[in-house]
Amino acid sequence: MGDRNTISYKKGDHIFDEGTKDPFLYEIESGTVGIFKEYEMSSEIKLAELTEGYFGENGLINDSPRNATAVALTNDTRVTKIGSDSIKDYFTDNPDEFDLFIQTISKRIRYMDKKYLRACEFIDEYMTAEKNNNPQDPDLINNMRVLLSGK
Amino acid sequence: MSDNIISFKKGDIICKENEYELWFYEILSGSMTIYKNYGLSDQYELGKADSGYIGEMGFLNSMSRIGTVVADEDTTLAKIDNDTFKDYFISHPEKIYSIIQCLLTRLNEINDNFLEVSDTIRDCVGLYEMNSPISSALSSAMEKFSNVFRSRKAK
């Protein structure tokens, strides 16, 4: 099956860090993983909170450093780490896992696309109020803050 | 596997905008253009393709076709549907990387779009809190995202 190993993390442990090279795919066995841009900085954005499936997929296809930080959000977090060199053999030997991986990425595309469209809708509402010289709706501002917090 | 190989001649429509189709294609040879509003006075090109996959987003994300795809020359495609998806890639393991790369490129695009719109939202919240006017740069960014929302809402 190539190089795969399962690792346990405590709450707050970093699984991989933005800016580092990390040629692995990860599968969540238990617990919760948060994916953050600019983690622990004032501009931090939570991109996702995951309880199942794969993450870190960009480690498979390019030589670039990680563009986000993955953090264990619960004490019972366990992930299986799969080396990028092994991935073709891994999916050939486990076609159901390949299916699951593709479905995971598709779901993520749909989820992020919905979030993106929602964000565009907020901006449209903000602009409409500005153009009509109306005060901004505090609920809209609150929704914007919630979107930025990743909740 | 040969019964899923389909040939198109120049000018043939491969798939139509807004239709739901439960399959996508790998481009084996030839080339094609993707059009918005094909055949109408406001028709325009979304892009061209001569390799990789076409229609995979619609298939994997249960979305209707975003454009009409028209063959630019004699073109041969492999049709991949729900029944053949797993077997197709397992019997062509060299293609596993290419479909993964295709999907991840799309995911990265969407993530980048979201980060860009998040910056604009952060600026809007900042303006509200400081009761400041909108700069022309911010106004352009807001216009861009507002247009994205309106054009997709119109579908």
Features:
heterodimer; A: Jelly Rolls; four-stranded antiparallel β-sheet; 4 helices; elongated; B: 155 residues; alpha+beta; 25% strand
Distance separating the two termini of chain B: 36 Å
Average pLDDT of chain B, to the nearest integer?
Answer: 89
Kindly give the count of domains of chain B. Answer: 2
Whole-number tally of structural domains of chain A: 1
Q: Are there runs of chain A of 5+ residues with pLDDT below 50, and where?
A: none
Largest sheet of chain B: 4 strands, antiparallel
| Class from helix and strand fractions of chain B | alpha+beta
Low-pLDDT residue intervals, each spanning 5 or more residues of chain B:
none
Class based on secondary structure composition and strand pairing of chain A: alpha+beta
Strand arrangement within the widest β-sheet of chain A reads 1-8-3-6
- How far apart the termini of chain A lie comes to 37 Å
Assess the beta-strand content of chain A as a share of residues. 25-35%
Strand content of chain B: 15-25%
Helical content class of chain A: 25-40%
For the sheet with most strands of chain A, the description reads: 4 strands, antiparallel
Radius of gyration of chain B: 20 Å
Q: How many H/I helical runs of chain A?
A: 4
The CATH class label of chain A is: Mainly Beta
Average pLDDT for all residues of chain A: 90
**CATH hierarchy class name of the largest domain in chain B:** Mainly Beta
CATH homologous superfamily (4th level) name of the largest domain in chain B: Jelly Rolls
Structure description:
The complex is a heterodimer of chains A (151) and B (155). Chain A has 151 residues and is of the alpha+beta class. Chain A has a single domain, classed as Jelly Rolls, CATH 2.60.120. Helix content of chain A is 40%, strand content 27%. In chain A, the strands form 2 sheets. In chain A, strands 1-8-3-6 form a 4-stranded antiparallel beta sheet. In chain A, helix 2 packs across helix 3 and helix 3 (95-131) runs antiparallel to helix 4 (138-149). With 155 residues, chain B is an alpha+beta fold. Helix content of chain B is 43%, strand content 25%. In chain B, the strands form 2 sheets. Chain B has a 4-stranded antiparallel beta sheet with strand order 1-8-3-6. In chain B, helix 3 (96-130) crosses helix 4 (136-153). Chain B starts with a strand and ends with a helix. The chains are: A alpha+beta (151), B alpha+beta (155). Chains A and B meet through helix 1, helix 2, helix 3 and helix 4 of A and helix 1, helix 2, helix 3 and helix 4 of B.
